Amino acid sequence: MSTIDEPRQPGVYRGFLAARAGMPQWIPHLLVMVAGMVVGLFAGLAVFRSLRGLIVLLLISAFLATALEPAVNFLANRGWRRGVATGAIFLLAFLAGSALIGLMVPLIIDQTLLLIDRIPGYIDDLAVQAERFGIEFSSDKIAAGLTDFDDTLQSYATDLAGSAFGIGSQLISTVFQGLTIALFTFYLVADAPRFRRLLMSTLPADRQREVLRVWEIAIEKTGGYFYSRALLAAIATVTAWVVFRILGVPFALALALWLGVLSQFVPVFGTYLGGAVPALIALLESPAEAVGVLVFVVVYQQIENYLLSPRITARTMSLHPALAFGSAIAGGTLMGVPGTLMALPVAATVQAFISTYVNRHDVIDSALTGSGARPAKPGRNSRA
Questions:
Q1: What is the DSSP string of 96-165?
Q2: Could you tell me which residues come within 8 angstroms of residue 372 by beta carbon, excluding any fewer than 6 positions away?
Q3: What is the mean pLDDT of the chain?
Q4: Residues of the chain where predicted confidence (pLDDT) is lower than 70
C-alpha cells in the first residue's frame, strides 16, 4: 500500500522500471554496444563516401606499385639504389606512353582531315546506291540538311564556349589525379621494404610469415600478369606492323601499337577494340585492305590463344575464360575502367591464395566427374 508522500508514477514508467529490474545486467550494455556500432557504421560510411575518390586512387597506386616492384627488385639486386631504380622504371614507362600518344595524335588529325575531304564523294556514292532502291536522295537535300546542321552546330558551339571553364577544370582535375597516382606509386615502390617492415612490426612472428607469403603471391601474380602481357603486346605490335606495311595501311606503326596494347591490357573486348580502328582506317583506303586487316586480326588471335599465350603465361597466371570474363565485369562494376584493368591479376592472386591454403584430395571415379560416358560393365546387358 503506497504512502501519502510517494509520488504518483505513470503506468508506462512503472512498467519500464519493473522490466529493467527483472532483465539481466548485460542487456543494457549490449544495447549500448549495438547503438554504438550502428552510429559508427553510418559515420564510417559517410567518411568512405567523402574519401571514395582518394581510396580509388590509392588502390590504383597499390596495383601499379605491385606490378612495377619485380622490375625494381631486379635492378636493386644488381646494385642499383632503390630510388634510382624506381625512377628509371618510371622514366621508361613515361617514354613509352609519350611515344604512343605522339604516334596517335598525327594519325587522328590526318584521318579526320581525310574523312572530311572524302565526305562529298561518300554522299555521291550513297545517292547512286539509293536511286537503285527508288529512294530520293539528292545532293541539294543533303546540302540543305548540312546547312541546318551547321546552324545547330554553331549554337552548340556557343553553349560549349560558355562551359569552357568547366572543361578546363575537369582537365586540371584529371592531370592532378594522374600526378597523385604517380606520386603514391613511386613512394610505394621505392619505400616498399621499409613500408613492409613498419606493418610487420605490429604483428607476431607467425602472422608476419602468413602476411608476407600472401604479399609475395600478390607481387608474383600481378607482376607476372603485367610483364607477360607486355611481352605479348610487343609480339603483337611487331607482327601487326609488318602485316600493315605489306597491306599498305597508313600509319602502320601507330595502328600496330594501338592493336598490341589494347588487345593485351584491356580484358575480354580489347582485341575487338584494338582491331576496329585499323580496320576502319584501312577501309578509308580500300575495302581490300580492310578485309586483309580483319583476316590478320582473326588469324593472329587464334595463333596467340593456342600457341603464344599458353607458353608465355603458363608460369604467371592461368585463369579460366569464364572466370576472367566475370572478374572483368565485376571490376568494371565496382571501379569502372581501373577496376576492369585490375580485375584479372586480382582474380589470379585470389585463385593462387586459395590453391595454396585449400587442401585437395583425389576425386573418386564417377560419371559426373569423367570427361566422357562411363564404359559399360562386362556381363551386364543394357536396357532398351
A1: HHHHHHHHHHHHHHHHHHHHHHHHHHHHHHHHHHHHHTT----HHHHHHHHHHHHHHHHHHHHHHHHTHH
A2: none
A3: 76
A4: 1-24, 111, 115, 118-168, 267-268, 313-321, 355-357, 370-384
Q: Which residues contact 191 (CB under 8 A, 6 or more apart)?
A: 82
Q: Single out the residue of 205, 200, 199, 287 nearest to residue 247, CA to CA.
A: 287
DSSP 8-state class, residue 374: P
Q: What is the pLDDT of residues 149-204, one digit of tens each?
A: 555 555 555 555 555 555 667 778 888 888 898 899 999 898 888 988 988 888 88
List pLDDT tens digits, range 329-365.
887 777 777 777 777 777 777 777 776 667 777 778 7
3 state SS for 277-304: HHHHHHHHHCHHHHHHHHHHHHHHHHHH
The answer to whether 275 and 263 are in contact (CB under 8 A) is yes
281 vs 24, 114, 244, 277, CA distance in Å?
78, 10, 11, 6
* The predicted structure's pLDDT at residue 86: 92
- Contact 71/89 with Cβ under 8 angstroms? yes
* Distance set, CA 123 to CA 111, 138, 141, 142, 290 (Å): 18, 9, 11, 8, 20
Contacts of 142 (CB under 8 A, 6+ apart): 123, 127
Taking the C-alpha atoms of residue 349 and residue 251, their distance in angstroms, rounded to an integer, is: 38
Distance of CA 316 to the CA centre of its chain: 18
Q: Could you tell me the pTM of the whole model?
A: 0.65
Cell of 246: 605489306
Q: Cell 582491331 maps to which residue?
A: 275
**Sequence-ordered list of residues with C-beta below 8 angstroms from that of 73, at least 6 positions apart, any chain:** none
Output the pLDDT for position 116.
73
